[in-house]
Amino acid sequence: MANRNLEKMASIDAQLRLLVPAKVSEDDKLVEYDALLLDRFLDILQDLHGEDLKET
């Protein structure tokens, strides 16, 4: 079960990395990737706790 969750997380990680444009510097890729991870995390929180989750 834990192995499947790890595979799923790796899959999400790979999908997010594909969203970052190929023609940007490595530093910009990290910033873009960081923003995508944060956005995905906030989406998951909203899914778990509903739309009433306060946005800051």
How would you describe this protein?
The chain has 56 residues and is mostly helical. The chain is 75% helix and 0% strand. The protein has one domain (2-49). The protein contains 2 helices and no strands. The longest helix is centred in the last third of the chain and has 24 residues, at 26-49. It starts with a helix and ends in a 7-residue tail after the last helix. This is Phosphoenolpyruvate carboxylase.
Any descriptors?
56 residues; mainly alpha; phosphoenolpyruvate carboxylase activity
Radius of gyration: 14 Å
Shape: elongated
Alpha-carbon distance between the two ends: 34 Å
Calculate the mean pLDDT score and round it. 71
Beta-strand segment tally: 0
Main beta-sheet annotation: none
Give the domain tally. Answer: 1
Low-confidence stretches: none
Strand portion, in percent? under 5%
Fraction of residues in H or I helices: over 70%
Judged by helices, strands and strand pairing, the structural class is mainly alpha
Number of helices: 2
Q: Helices and strands, in N-to-C order? A: HH
Protein name: Phosphoenolpyruvate carboxylase
Organism: Glycine max (Soybean)
EC number: 4.1.1.31
Keywords: Lyase, Pyruvate
